[in-house]
Every structure is written in structure tokens, then in C-alpha cells.
Amino acid sequence: MRIGDPTALPGLLDQIGGPIEKFIADGAYDGTPTRDLLATRFGEIVEVIIPPRLPLPALNRCWFHLSAIAILQKSTGYNKRSRAETQMGRWKAVIGPKVKARHFDNEKTEAKIGVRVLNRITELGRPKFERLA
């Protein structure tokens, strides 16, 4: 059984032990159910940053919305979330979708090794720029 992002949200929120100030997510979470769940769990003071989900024809017709989304992403640090999501995609592709160890201490060691491997791979593939003029 596959679970989509909004369906998994209650379980993810159950893992948070304290209050949160800001919730940043992609357009898959855009909608009243997500906003209502966040308000119920954390109160109205939580800042919810979710760019609106637009259908493809609307994107082609309305460049204003694209500009508004770009401004939203830049002003809220949304690109940081995108980088983290990309790195998690790398983790799943290179390391795998779950840990293989059976004991918590071994799982922590496995995660540390995975992080070092991914950091090394990322470092090798990162371009270096030099200003010429």
C-alpha cells in the first residue's frame, strides 16, 4: 500500500515532541485538511508556508503565479527544504529506503556511515566556481 504525503502527515507530526513555529512543505500538502491539522496540533501561531498547487495549463497561462511562487520561495527559505528533500532522495537511491540494522545502536552507526558516504559523494559532484573577470 502506498501512502501519499498528506496521508502520512499525522504520523510524521506525532514524532514531534514540542511546539513548532514554522511548517514548510511542497504543493502536495496544499489544502484545508493540512492547515486544519496543523492548527489543531500546534495552534494558530504556527506559520504555514506551502506554495499553492496549480494545474499545468494554469502555469502556462499565468506567469504572475510563477513569479509569486518564486518570491514566496525566496523570502521564506523554501529552497533549503528543497535541498533537504533532494538529499533525502539521494539517500533513498544510494543507501536505500530503510536501515538494515536490527538494534538501535547499530542503526545509529549505519546512519552515520550513510551520512558520511552521501557527504563524500555530494562533495565530489559539487562544481567549484571561480570568478574570471
Termini separation (Å)? 55 Å
Topology as a string of helices (H) and strands (E): HEHEHHHH
Helix content: 55-70%
Class by helix and strand content? Answer: mainly alpha
Low-confidence blocks of residues? none
The fraction of residues assigned to DSSP E strands is under 5%
3D shape: flat
Note the main sheet: 2 strands, parallel
Given the structure, what is the number of helices? 6
Number of strands: 2
Question: Number of domains in the coordinates?
Answer: 2
- Average pLDDT reading: 78
Strand adjacency order, main sheet: 1-2
Radius of gyration from the CA trace?
19 Å
List the helices and strands and how they pair.
Layout: H1 5-14, E1 22-24, H2 32-42, E2 47-49, H3 56-61, H4 63-76, H5 78-94, H6 104-125
Parallel strand pairs: 1-2
Helix pairs in contact: 1-2
Give a verbal description of the structure:
This protein has 133 residues and is mainly alpha-helical. It has two domains: 1-76, no CATH class; 79-126, no CATH class. It contains six helices and two strands; from the N terminus they run αβαβαααα. The chain has helices at residues 5-14, 32-42, 56-61, 63-76, 78-94, 104-125, and strands at residues 22-24, 47-49. Helix 2 links the parallel strand 1 (22-24) and strand 2. Helix 1 packs parallel to helix 2 (32-42). It is flat. The N and C termini lie far apart (55 Å). The model has no long low-confidence stretch (mean pLDDT 78).
